[in-house]
C-alpha cells in the first residue's frame, strides 16, 4: 500500500492553547476575587457588575467553558489527528469553531456581569448565546465525525470513544436544559417549572460535570498519559467496560443534587443508587491511568508532566469516590448546601482538570515548537506550589462545611437551636475563607509560572504549523470476525448511535414520569401565580444572582423547619417558578419562608446595607436597587411569555397588569412611609420587597383555608 | 482472681477499659472522671492481668515466628540441595502478600507484558490485554447489589422510612425528649405571668448576648431603635412591664413585623433578655428613634 503524505494542523491547536492559558488565568483571578469577597465584602467595589452574585457565575463559566473547554479542544484537535492519521476534516470548520467559541466566551464575559442570566447553574447564559453554543457545538461535532470518517486508522482508539460520547451527550444536555421562552432580546423564562425544572437542571448540571469535565479529559488522559510515560495502556478490556458503564450510569445520577428536596422520593433513590454504582466505572479510568505507569514510576519522580498527570488522576479517583459518598442521604444531609461541596468540586476542578491540562501543555508545547521545555525546574516548582494550593484550598473548605453544618443542626437540651442566628455560623468559618483564598492564590501563582515557562519555551523554539506525516490510506475492504467491540471500533456512526442510546435511557426514565404523572407534584390549591410586581422582583432576584448564596428549599429536618419557622418546602409550591430557584449553596440563610417574616422596612434597610441590620454580615450592599426603576413596559411581555408556558394568567391580563403592579407598589410605599422611609414606587427595591414578602406564604393561606372549613 | 476478672467484664466499663489499653490518652481522660469510684482497685488488677496476657502472647508469637522461620529455612535448604542435585534453578516462592495481591489484581507482571500485548498501535500507543482487576469487578458487583437492595428496601418492601416519615419520627422523638426534660425540671417553666426582673449579672450578660445577636438587627445594639421601636425611652407600644415585654417577645406582633421567639429562645433566655431590655431604659443613646406608643410608668 502506498504511503500518503499529509500534515497535522498544529496552528489550530496553538490557538486553543493560547486561549486555554489566558482564560485559565482570567477564570482563576475571578474566582480568587469571589473568594476574597466572602471575607472582605469591600472587594465587591460597590458596583452592581462586580458583586459576588454576578461574579460567581462568571467564575464558573470562565473556568468550565473557557479554560477547561479550550483545553479540551486543544487536546482533542492535537490527539484526534494523530490517532486517526489524518488532518482535521475541514480547516474552515476548525476556525469557525475556534472563533465562534471565543465569541461565546466574550458574550458571556459581558452579559454575566450585566446581570443577564437564566440563573440555572453552568447554564446561566441567555437564549441568543444558547443558540450560538448549539451551532458551534454542531460545527465541532461535524468536524470531529468528519475527521473520524476520513481516517487512515482502521479502529478508533479509546480516547476517541470518549470524545464521541462527549460530543453527543453535551449536545443533548444543552438543548434539553436550554428550552426557554424568550421575553426580550436577553431575557427568557425556563420552559420547565419548579420540581421539573430542578430535575432537568441537575440532570444537566451533574452531567456537565460528567461529559464536559470528565469524559473529554479521560480521552485526553488516554492519549497524553501513555505518550508521556511511553508505556502501553494497562488493559483494553477495562477500557471497554469502564467506558460503557460510565456513560450509561452517569446520566442517572443527577437527582443526588436534590436529596431531601421536594423531588419525588423514587427519583431521589435512583440518584443515590446510580451514584454509588458509579464508583467502579469511574475508578476504571483511574486504574487504567495509574497502572499504565507500571514500570515508569522512577520517571515520575523527575518528569513534571508525569507528576501533574499522576496527581490529576489521583484527584479524579478521590473526587469520584467522594461523590458517591456525598450521594448517600445521611452524608448528604450534613454536607449539602455547605462549603464541603465547594471543596469537593475544587478537588475535581483544580486537581483533575487543572493538573491534567498543565501536564498536557508541558508535554505538547515543546513538541509543537520543536524544542525542549524552557525550565523543568520551574515546572517542578509549579507542581509543588499547585499541589500546596489544592491542599490549602480543600482542607479549610472541608472543615468550614462540616463546622457550619453541625452548627446549623445543634439543639440545646431544652430543644432550641444552639445557634438561632444564622450569622453566627458564618462568622465562625471566616478564618477558613481566608485560608482558602491563600490556597487559591498559590494555585494562581503556579499557573502564572507555567504561562511564563510556556511563552519562553515557544520563544526559544520554532513553531511547526503543519507537521508532516505519512500513512497508507485505509483500504476499502470488508472485515469480519474479531472481537465484537473491535468491530464496533470500525463503525463510527454505529458507535455514535449506541452512545446516544446509552445516555438517553437514564434521562428518559427519570424525566418522563416526573412530567407526566400528576402525583409526583401534588397541587396545592392556594398556590397562585406571582403578581406583576412580584414577577419584576423575582427577575431582579435572578439578575443579582441571589440564588448563588440563598437557597429556597427548606428540607424536611427539624433543624430547618425550626430555623426557617415554617413547614418544609412542598413540590406543589413551586409550580409557577420558571425557573426554579432552590439554589445549591447556603452562604446566607434559606429564603423560602422569609415572606412576611420581617417588616418591609427591614428589607429596605437590609438591602441598602446589610451590616446596618446584621453587623458582621458578609452580604454586599445593593444601593443601585434604590435608584434604578422597574421597566413597566416589559410587564405585558413577561405575562404573555409565562402564559405560553403554562402559568394561568387570564387572557388579556397583560393589559391591566400594570394597574395591579401600581396598587401593590403603593401599599409597600405606604408601609415604608409609616416607618419614616420615602421611596419612589417604581424603584426596583419595591418590587424586590414584594417578591421577598410573597416567598413561601401561599401555603399559609392554605392552612387558613383548612381551618375555616 | 478468676471471679474478679469476671466482675470486671460484667461491669459496664469493661469495654471502655479495653479501648483505653489501645488509646492511653483516652484512658487518662476517663481516669480523671472515674477515679473516685471503687473501680480503681479492680482496674489495677485488670491492667495487670491484661498486661501479663499481652506480654505472654507477644512472647509466644515471637517464639512461634522464630520456629516458623527455622522450619522454613530447613525446608529451603532441602529444596536447594535437591535443586542442585537435579541441576535446576530454584524459583523463589511468592509470599502470602504477593499471592494475595496477585489474586486481587490478576495482572501480568511488567516483565512478561509482551505476552498480553495487543497488536494495537495508535500513534505509538500500545495496549495490553490485562484482565479486569478482580477486586474492581467485585466492587462493581457489590455496588450493583447495594443498588438493588436499596431500591427494594425503600420502595418495594417499605422497610426503611422515606423522608416524610423520617421527618415525622424526628419531630416526635424531639418532642418526647423536650417533654421529658420539662418533667425533670418539675414543670416550673417561666412564662409571661411568672417572669420577674433580675439584676443578676450573669443573667443580664446572657440577655445582652441574645439581644446583640437577635434583637439588635431591628432595635439597634444600644436599643435606640431602627426598623423596630426605641426600647430606651418610656413609651411602649405593647406595654413596658417585664411581663408585657416577655409576652411581646414570646408571641411577637406579626402584623408589625415583630416575630414570635417562642420557638427560637427558651423561656429562661426570653426572661434574661427581657430583664436586659428593662435595664436599657433611660440610657439615652445617640440618635434615637422617636417615641412610639403609650407612656409607661413603673408601679
TrEMBL record, chain A:
Keyword check for Cell inner membrane: no
Membrane topology, from the record: Multi-pass membrane protein
Principal subcellular localisation of the protein: membrane
Domain Cytochrome oxidase subunit I profile intervals: 11-475
Pathway as given in its UniProt record: Energy metabolism; oxidative phosphorylation
Domain Cytochrome c: from-to ranges: 532-696
Principal EC category: translocase
Keywords assigned by UniProt, alphabetized: Cell membrane, Copper, Electron transport, Heme, Iron, Membrane, Metal-binding, Respiratory chain, Translocase, Transmembrane, Transmembrane helix, Transport
PROSITE patterns with a match to the protein in the record: COX1 (PS50855), COX1_CUB (PS00077), CYTC (PS51007)
Cofactors named for this entry: Cu(2+); heme b
Coiled-coil residue windows: none
Transmembrane feature ranges: 12-40, 60-80, 92-115, 127-149, 156-176, 202-224, 236-253, 273-293, 305-321, 341-365, 377-399, 433-455, 493-516
InterPro entries assigned to the protein according to its UniProt record, in alphabetical order: Cyt_c-like_dom (IPR009056), Cyt_c-like_dom_sf (IPR036909), Cyt_c_oxase-like_su1_dom (IPR023616), Cyt_c_oxase-like_su1_sf (IPR036927), Cyt_C_Oxase_1 (IPR000883), Cyt_c_Oxase_su1_BS (IPR023615), Cyt_c_oxidase_cbb3_su1 (IPR004677), Cyt_c_oxidase_monohaem-su/FixO (IPR003468)
Record EC number: 7.1.1.9
Compartmental location: Cell membrane
Family annotation (PANTHER family): CYTOCHROME C OXIDASE SUBUNIT 1 (PTHR10422), CYTOCHROME C OXIDASE SUBUNIT 1 HOMOLOG, BACTEROID (PTHR10422:SF29)
Name used for this protein in its record: cytochrome-c oxidase
Source organism per UniProt: Splendidivirga corallicola
Name of the gene: ccoN
Automatic annotation (TrEMBL), chain B:
InterPro entries: CcoP_N, CcoP_N_sf, Cyt_c-like_dom, Cyt_c-like_dom_sf, Cytochrome_c_Oxidase_Subunit
Region annotation (Disordered) ranges: 279-299
Membrane as UniProt keyword: yes
UniProt keyword list: Heme, Iron, Membrane, Metal-binding, Transmembrane, Transmembrane helix
Pfam families: Cytochrome_CBB3 (PF13442), FixP_N (PF14715)
Transmembrane segments: 45-68, 135-157
Domain named Cytochrome c: residues: 202-281
PANTHER family (UniProt xref): CBB3-TYPE CYTOCHROME C OXIDASE SUBUNIT FIXP
Name of the protein described by the UniProt record: Cbb3-type cytochrome c oxidase N-terminal domain-containing protein
Amino acid at each position: 500500500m502506498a504511503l500518503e503524505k499529509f500534515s497535522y494542523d498544529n496552528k489550530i491547536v496553538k490557538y486553543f492553547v493560547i486561549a486555554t492559558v489566558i482564560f485559565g488565568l482570567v477564570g482563576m483571578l475571578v474566582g480568587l476575587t469571589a473568594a476574597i469577597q466572602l471575607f472582605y465584602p469591600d472587594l465587591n467595589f460597590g458596583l452592581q457588575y462586580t458583586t459576588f452574585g454576578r461574579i460567581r457565575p462568571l467564575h464558573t463559566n470562565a473556568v468550565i467553558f473557557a479554560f477547561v473547554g479550550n483545553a479540551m479542544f486543544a487536546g482533542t484537535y492535537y490527539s484526534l489527528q494523530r490517532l486517526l492519521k489524518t488532518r482535521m476534516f475541514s480547516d474552515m470548520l476548525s476556525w469557525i469553531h475556534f472563533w465562534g467559541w471565543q465569541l461565546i466566551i466574550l458574550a458571556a464575559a459581558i452579559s454575566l456581569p450585566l446581570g443577564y442570566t437564566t440563573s440555572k447553574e453552568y447554564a446561566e447564559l441567555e437564549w441568543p448565546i444558547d443558540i450560538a453554543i448549539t451551532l458551534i457545538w454542531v460545527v465541532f461535532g461535524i468536524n470531529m465525525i468528519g475527521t473520524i470518517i476520513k481516517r487512515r486508522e482502521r479502529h478508533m482508539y479509546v480516547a476517541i470513544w470518549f470524545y464521541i460520547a462527549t460530543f453527543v451527550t453535551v449536545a443533548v444536555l444543552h438543548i434539553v436544559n436550554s428550552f426557554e421562552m424568550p421575553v426580550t432580546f436577553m431575557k427568557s423564562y425556563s420552559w420547565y417549572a419548579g420540581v421539573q425544572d430542578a430535575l432537568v437542571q441537575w440532570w444537566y448540571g451533574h452531567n456537565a460535570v460528567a461529559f464536559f469535565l470528565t469524559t473529554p479529559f479521560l480521552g485526553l488522559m488516554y492519549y497524553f498519559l501513555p505518550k508521556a510515560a511511553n508505556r502501553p495502556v494497562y488493559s483494553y478490556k477495562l477500557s471497554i467496560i469502564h467506558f460503557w458503564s460510565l456513560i450509561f450510569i452517569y446520566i442517572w445520577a443527577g437527582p443526588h443534587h436534590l436529596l431531601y428536596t421536594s423531588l419525588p422520593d423514587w427519583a431521589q433513590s435512583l440518584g443515590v443508587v446510580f451514584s454509588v454504582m458509579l464508583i467502579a466505572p469511574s475508578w476504571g479510568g483511574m486504574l487504567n491511568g495509574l497502572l499504565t505507569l507500571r514500570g515508569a514510576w522512577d520517571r515520575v519522580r523527575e518528569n513534571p508532566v508525569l507528576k501533574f498527570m499522576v496527581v490529576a488522576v489521583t484527584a479524579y479517583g478521590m473526587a469520584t469516590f467522594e461523590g458517591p459518598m456525598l450521594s448517600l442521604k445521611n452524608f448528604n444531609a450534613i454536607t449539602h448546601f455547605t462549603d464541603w461541596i465547594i471543596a469537593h468540586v475544587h478537588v475535581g476542578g483544580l486537581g483533575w482538570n487543572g493538573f491534567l491540562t498543565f501536564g498536557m501543555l508541558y508535554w505538547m508545547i515543546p513538541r509543537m515548537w520543536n524544542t525542549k521545555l524552557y525550565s523543568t525546574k520551574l515546572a517542578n516548582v509549579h507542581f509543588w506550589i499547585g499541589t500546596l494550593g489544592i491542599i490549602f484550598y480543600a482542607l479549610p473548605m472541608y472543615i468550614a462545611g462540616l463546622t457550619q453544618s453541625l452548627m446549623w443542626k445543634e439543639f440545646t437540651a431544652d430543644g432550641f437551636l444552639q445557634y438561632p442566628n444564622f450569622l453566627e455560623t458564618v462568622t465562625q468559618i471566616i478564618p477558613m475563607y481566608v485560608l482558602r483564598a491563600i490556597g487559591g492564590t498559590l494555585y494562581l501563582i503556579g499557573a502564572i509560572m507555567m504561562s511564563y515557562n510556556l511563552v519562553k519555551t515557544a520563544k526559544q523554539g520554532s513553531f511547526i504549523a503543519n507537521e508532516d506525516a505519512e500513512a497508507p490510506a485505509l483500504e476499502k475492504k470488508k472485515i469480519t470476525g474479531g472481537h465484537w467491540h473491535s468491530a464496533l471500533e470500525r463503525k463510527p456512526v454505529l458507535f455514535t448511535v449506541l452512545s446516544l442510546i446509552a445516555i438517553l435511557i437514564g434521562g428518559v426514565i427519570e424525566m418522563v414520569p416526573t412530567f407526566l404523572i400528576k402525583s409526583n407534584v401534588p397541587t396545592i390549591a392556594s398556590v397562585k401565580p406571582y403578581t406583576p410586581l412580584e414577577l419584576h422582583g423575582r427577575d431582579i432576584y435572578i439578575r443579582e444572582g441571589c440564588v448563588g448564596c440563598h437557597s429556597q428549599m427548606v428540607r424536611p429536618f427539624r433543624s430547618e423547619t425550626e430555623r426557617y419557622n415554617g413547614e418544609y418546602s412542598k413540590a406543589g409550591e413551586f409550580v409557577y417558578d420558571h425557573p426554579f430557584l432552590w439554589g445549591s449553596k447556603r452562604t446566607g440563610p434559606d429564603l423560602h419562608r422569609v415572606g412576611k417574616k420581617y417588616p418591609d422596612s427591614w428589607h429596605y434597610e437590609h438591602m441598602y446595607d446589610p451590616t446596618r441590620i446584621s453587623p458582621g454580615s458578609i452580604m454586599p450592599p445593593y444601593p443601585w436597587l434604590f435608584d434604578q426603576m422597574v421597566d413597566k413596559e416589559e410587564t405585558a411581555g413577561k405575562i404573555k411569555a409565562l402564559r405560553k408556558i403554562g402559568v394561568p394568567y387570564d387572557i388579556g391580563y397583560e393589559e391591566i397588569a400594570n394597574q395591579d403592579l401600581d396598587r401593590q407598589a403603593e401599599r409597600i410605599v405606604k408601609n415604608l412611609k409609616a416607618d419614616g422611609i420615602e421611596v419612589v414606587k417604581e424603584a426596583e427595591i419595591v418590587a424586590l420587597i414584594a417578591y421577598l414578602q410573597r416567598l413561601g406564604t401561599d401555603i399559609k393561606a392554605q392552612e387558613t383555608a383548612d381551618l375555616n372549613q | 482472681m478468676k471471679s474478679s476478672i469476671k466482675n470486671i467484664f460484667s461491669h459496664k466499663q469493661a469495654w471502655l477499659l479495653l479501648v483505653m489499653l489501645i488509646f492511653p490518652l483516652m484512658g487518662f481522660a476517663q481516669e480523671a472522671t472515674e477515679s473516685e469510684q471503687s473501680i480503681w482497685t479492680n482496674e489495677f488488677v485488670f491492667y495487670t492481668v491484661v498486661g501479663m496476657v499481652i506480654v505472654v502472647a507477644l512472647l509466644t508469637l515471637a517464639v512461634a515466628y522464630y520456629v516458623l522461620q527455622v522450619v522454613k529455612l530447613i525446608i529451603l535448604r532441602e529444596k536447594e540441595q535437591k535443586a542442585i542435585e537435579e541441576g535446576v534453578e530454584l524459583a523463589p516462592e511468592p509470599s502470602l502478600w504477593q499471592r494475595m495481591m496477585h489474586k486481587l489484581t490478576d495482572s501480568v507482571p511488567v516483565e512478561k507484558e509482551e505476552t498480553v500485548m495487543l497488536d494495537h498501535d495508535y500513534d505509538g500507543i500500545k495496549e495490553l490485554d490485562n484482565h479486569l482487576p478482580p477486586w474492581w469487578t467485585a466492587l462493581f458487583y457489590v455496588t450493583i447489589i447495594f443498588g438493588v437492595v436499596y431500591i427494594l428496601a425503600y420502595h418495594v418492601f417499605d422497610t426503611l422510612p422515606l423522608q416524610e416519615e423520617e421527618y415525622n419520627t424526628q419531630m416526635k422523638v424531639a418532642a418526647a425528649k423536650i417533654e421529658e426534660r420539662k418533667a425533670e425540671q418539675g414543670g416550673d417553666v417561666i412564662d409571661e405571668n411568672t417572669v420577674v426582673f433580675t439584676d443578676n449579672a450573669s443573667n443580664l450578660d446572657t440577655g445582652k448576648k441574645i439581644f446583640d445577636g437577635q434583637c439588635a438587627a431591628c432595635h439597634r445594639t444600644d436599643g435606640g431603635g431602627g426598623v423596630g421601636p426605641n426600647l430606651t425611652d418610656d413609651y411602649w407600644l405593647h406595654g413596658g412591664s417585664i411581663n408585657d415585654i416577655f409576652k411581646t417577645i414570646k408571641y411577637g406582633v406579626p402584623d408589625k413585623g415583630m416575630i414570635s421567639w417562642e420557638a427560637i429562645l427558651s423561656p429562661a433566655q426570653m426572661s434574661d433578655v427581657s430583664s436586659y431590655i428593662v435595664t436599657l431604659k433611660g440610657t439615652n443613646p445617640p440618635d434615637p428613634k422617636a417615641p412610639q406608643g403609650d407612656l409607661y410608668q413603673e408601679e
